UniProtKB/TrEMBL annotation:
CDD domains: HTH_ARSR. InterPro entries: ArsR-like_HTH (IPR011991), HTH_ArsR_DNA-bd_dom (IPR001845), Metal_resp_trans_reg (IPR051011), WH-like_DNA-bd_sf (IPR036388), WH_DNA-bd_sf (IPR036390). It comes from the Bacteria. SUPFAM superfamilies: Winged helix' DNA-binding domain. The lineage of its organism: Bacteria, Pseudomonadati, Pseudomonadota, Alphaproteobacteria, Rhodobacterales. The keyword Secreted does not apply. Residues 1-95 form the HTH arsR-type domain. This is Helix-turn-helix transcriptional regulator. Keywords: DNA-binding, Transcription, Transcription regulation. GO terms for molecular function: DNA binding; DNA-binding transcription factor activity.
Length: 106
């Protein structure tokens, strides 16, 4: 994953309302949530939710799908997993011997 993509995704999640929306969708699982139910769960105006969903969709974190008259939103798990992997991939990469020393002291 490129640094610029990760930065854009993290920026989208950096807003408290968008983070609440995203977490609600992650909690909903693969079935996602209809926009109306998501709006009721978060407790914000439809226009505000629409704005925040647009930003999450643009960042690739959320997908929207129309099913008849219902707009269904889902967390895009491959993107979420890639972002988490990007953040954790090099965890302690520079610690080297220092990490090994901590383990032996216990």
């Amino acid at each position: 994953m490129k640094l610029e993509i990760a930065a854009r995704q993290l920026e989208a999640l950096g807003n408290p309302t968008r983070l609440r929306v995203y977490r609600a969708l992650v909690r909903a699982g693969a079935d996602g949530l209809p926009v109306g139910r998501l709006q009721a769960r978060i407790g914000i105006a439809a226009s505000t939710l629409s704005h925040h969903l647009k930003r999450l969709v643009e960042a690739g974190l959320v997908t929207r799908e129309r099913q008849a008259t219902t707009l269904l939103c889902r967390a895009h798990y491959p993107t979420m997993n890639a972002l988490i992997g990007f953040l954790a991939d090099e965890c302690c990469a520079d610690a080297g011997c220092a990490r090994d020393g901590e383990d032996s002291a216990a």
